[in-house]
Structures are given as C-alpha cells and as structure tokens.
Write a structure and sequence with these properties.
The chain has helices spanning 51-63, 75-83, 100-114, 126-131, 155-165, 177-180, 215-228, 234-245, 247-267, 285-291, 306-316, 346-352, 368-384, and strands at 68-72, 91-95, 117-121, 137-143, 168-172, 190-194, 208-212, 271-275, 298-303, 321-322, 332-334, 358-362. The protein is an alpha/beta fold. The chain has a seven-stranded mixed beta sheet with strand order 1-7-6-5-4-2-3, with helices on both faces. A five-stranded mixed beta sheet has the order 8-9-12-11-10. Helix 2 runs parallel beside helix 3 (100-114). The longest helix has 21 residues, at 247-267.
Amino acid sequence: AGCEPEHIAYSVVPPITLSTTFIQAYPGKKPGIDDPSSYGNGYFYSRQSNPTRGLFERALAATEDAKHCAAFSSGLAASQSVIQLLNSGDHVIALDDLYGGTSSYFRQVATPGMGIDFTFMNLDDIAKVEAAITPKTRMVWLESPSNPLLKTTDIRKITAMAKRRGLIVVVDSTFMSPYLQHPLGMGADVVVHSVTKYIAGHSDVLMGAVLTNSDALNTKLRSLQNLAGAVPSPFDCYLAMRGLKTLGIRMEASQRNAQKVAEFLEKHPLIEQVNYPGLASYPQKALARTQSAGSGAVMAIFIKGGLKAAGKFLQELKVFGLAVSLGAVESLACSPAIMTHASVPVEAREKIGLTDSLIRLSIGIENTDDLIHDLDQALNKAASEM
C-alpha cells in the first residue's frame, strides 16, 4: 500500500503540496500534464487537482484493485457524491442496517431535499429485493459487514441480480478495508470507504473515498468532487497515505485481538449475544469466508440488563475509550442507540434489532490481556448493580 515517488526529486516520502494555485507558463497551459497524479489534466487549482491528493487516490485505488479513486473531505461527503449521481424521482434500495449518518442523510436530506426515494430492507432474500424494484429504481446500497449489527450481505448475488436489471450497486466496505475485501471484484460498481477508519487508522484524519472501475461513473464523480468542492486537505491526504502503508499490519493485529475478545465475551454470563464473523456462532460465517480474507475487528455485543447495564459497563471501561468512530489503533466502545444511530427513527432501529442493549466494540492493537481484563472488570461492575 505504498505509493510511487513524486516525479521531481523522487523522494521516498511524497511532499505535501499546500499550494492552492499553480503557475502557468502561458495562459491556459497548465503545469503537470505529464504527472500521473494529475490524471493528464495538469494542475490549475487545488480543488480541481492536487499532487498529494492524486498520489493518495492512486495508492488507494491500487490497494482496492480499482481503476479510479476520488477522495472527499469525509465519508459522508463521499456518500453524498454517489447519491448525487442520481436524479430527482429516482429510487434506491438500501440495506436496513446502515451507518447512522448515511441513513439519516438518506432520510433527512436526499428524500425531502432531492426527491430521491429509498426502500430500506434486508437484502438476504433476492426474490424480495427484486420484488422491491420499481421502474424508477437506479441503485442498490449496502454495507457488508453492516454498521452496527455486523450483517454480511451476499455481494455476488446482489450484483448479479442488479446487472440483470441495470442497477448500480454501491458497497460501503469500511469495516473490512481494502486489506480484507474487494467488492469491485465481486461485481460491485462503486465502493465507498470512510478513510477516517482503518485506512488512515489513527483517529486524526477525516476523509472519505469513492472507487470504481467505470470510466463513465468516474467522470461524473470527478466533476462532483470539483464542483461540490468537498475535497480533503493535502495534509490529510499525506496522513492517510502514511496510514495506508501500515494498513496490513494494523488489521492483522486488530483481528488477532478481536478474535480473542469475541471468544471471551461469548462465554461471559452477562453477554447475551456476540455478532462477530470470526465466531463459529456467527450466522453468516460461511458466506463471510467467501467474501473476505478475514473477520475484521468490529463486533456487536448485546448485554443483559438493557440500557442501565450497558451504561454502567461503558462508564467503567478504562482501556477502551467511550467514543464514536472505529478502525483505529486504539480500542473504542459505544452505544449505537444513543450515540452513532440516535438520529435514526426509533421504530426503524427497533425493527432491525438495534436496541439499548447493543454495544459496538472496535478492537485496536493494544495488549490482548489488557483489553480482556478491562472488559471483564467493567462487566463485573455492571453485573453488581443488576
């Protein structure tokens, strides 16, 4: 997950190009036409193209086995740009378990503000998905695994069906990262990443990315990236590029910890259920193995005692940070119902089983025993108040 050296001094670490504008030798003759990171367009204004951003995009595209990558100022900015590929009156079939920000954007902005309709549903039954298609359906949107319930969707079945019906398939692959999963290779048209999470990996970058092998979609996405202006800073691109270089070793370390943590929690008397693809009890384990090269490092656990027990447990954690976000070197824990997904309508949360008992854990690279000890002491304190 490295990148090519820049094409002036050929430095190992690429420079951070902070300039917002670029000197032209003659009016209209843009510099950098021969720089691959300008995609043959040269440099004019940094919103349009920037050498550091171009290097990061090309490195991430190589990691995802994608032809094209466009970086945005956040994961939601990336998702919004994909939705802007559609027109008023279009219809989207979306997984019913999505990141709260994505779901809220669809419900609160895209539908009332853009006139785009959404059907939220479980995508396991292909026949039911096909039955939900209308003459105005243009796109299927899913996360696999999903946030926060860790559902795995059969990407190959969805894309095969979608291709028959002429639909665009978008897969948010944030939980797996390009190290563990390549949806484009399974037929998806577009992959979305919150770069903030595993790719950057250190809780210090806010960024998103959209990747595709379609020249036509890329042309539209590049135009949206430029004209909407939601581009990441060159410094953030540099940090994300540095994070990308260690993605593999961070994912391996986090996965090792996550497997042991999940096995410990599954046996704890206060834990009712653990959703983690690495466990034998995971309902879609066989499917997950066919799509991903690992189990990732995020899990959903259900604690007995409802919100009171969940709150006490989260409050007593010492090594885990009680915070939103995921995918970084530090372990984090949160209550989706009152944190990441609080903006999702209660009835929509209850329909999919997103209850007050749910806790999402993102496992980092700390010492495994320290993590398990922390979870154990917090669970014991929560149990003592039940």
